[in-house]
Write a structure and sequence with these properties.
Blueprint (H helix, E strand, L loop, with lengths): L5 E5 L5 H7 L8 E6 L3 H8 L3 H7 L4 H14 L4 E7 L14 E8 L2 E8 L4 H25 L3
Parallel strand pairs: 1-2, 1-3
Antiparallel strand pairs: 3-4, 4-5
C-alpha cells in the first residue's frame, strides 16, 4: 500500500521466504526477488558481504545478517532488505553456535537491525520457524512505519 519494494537474502531457509511471498496473489506489486546465497562465495559475490566479516564473525552472525540485508537491498534497488542466516541442523554446530541459531536482518529507510533466535526443531522446522519470524519482523516494521513519523 505504501509503494515499498522488498528484496530478500536467504541462506538457511533456501528460498522459503520467497516461496511464501509468491504464494500471495499480487506480491509482484512489492516483491522484487530473492538471492539464495548458501556458500560464503555466494554471499560475497551476490550480496557484497565482506570476506573479513565472514572470517571474523562467521556466516551465522548479526554482522553477516546485516550485510546480507543491506547487500540485497542495494543490488535490487529495494526499499527494504530482509535476510536470514542460520544453522538449520542437524549438523553444523560449533562452540557458541548451536543448531537452531538464526540471525534475521532488516535494512530499511529507517535504519538496520538484526535479531538472534535459537530454534529447537528439526531441520525443516527450523527453516519454517526462521521464514515465519522473518515475515513477522517485516510485518511489524511495516505496521510501525505506517504509524510513525515520515
Amino acid at each position: 500500500q505504501r509503494g515499498l519494494r522488498l528484496a530478500v537474502a536467504e541462506s538457511c531457509t533456501g528460498g522459503l521466504i520467497g516461496h511464501r511471498l509468491t504464494n500471495v496473489a499480487g506480491s509482484s506489486d512489492y516483491y522484487l526477488g530473492s538471492v539464495t546465497a548458501y556458500a560464503y562465495e555466494a554471499k560475497v559475490k551476490w550480496l557484497g558481504v565482506n570476506w573479513a566479516t565472514l572470517d571474523q564473525y562467521g556466516a551465522v552472525s548479526g554482522e553477516t545478517a546485516l550485510e546480507m540485508a543491506r547487500g540485497v537491498r542495494a543490488s535490487l534497488s529495494a526499499d527494504i532488505g530482509v535476510s536470514v542466516t542460520g544453522i538449520a541442523g542437524p549438523g553444523g554446530a560449533t562452540p557458541g553456535k548451536p543448531v537452531g541459531l538464526t540471525w534475521i536482518g532488516l535494512s530499511t529507510p529507517d535504519g538496520d537491525n538484526a535479531w538472534q533466535f535459537v530454534w529447537a526443531g528439526d531441520r525443516v522446522q527450523n527453516k519454517e520457524y526462521s521464514a515465519e519470524k522473518a515475515l513477522e519482523l517485516l510485518a511489524e516494521y511495516l505496521k510501525d512505519a505506517a504509524h510513525g513519523p515520515h
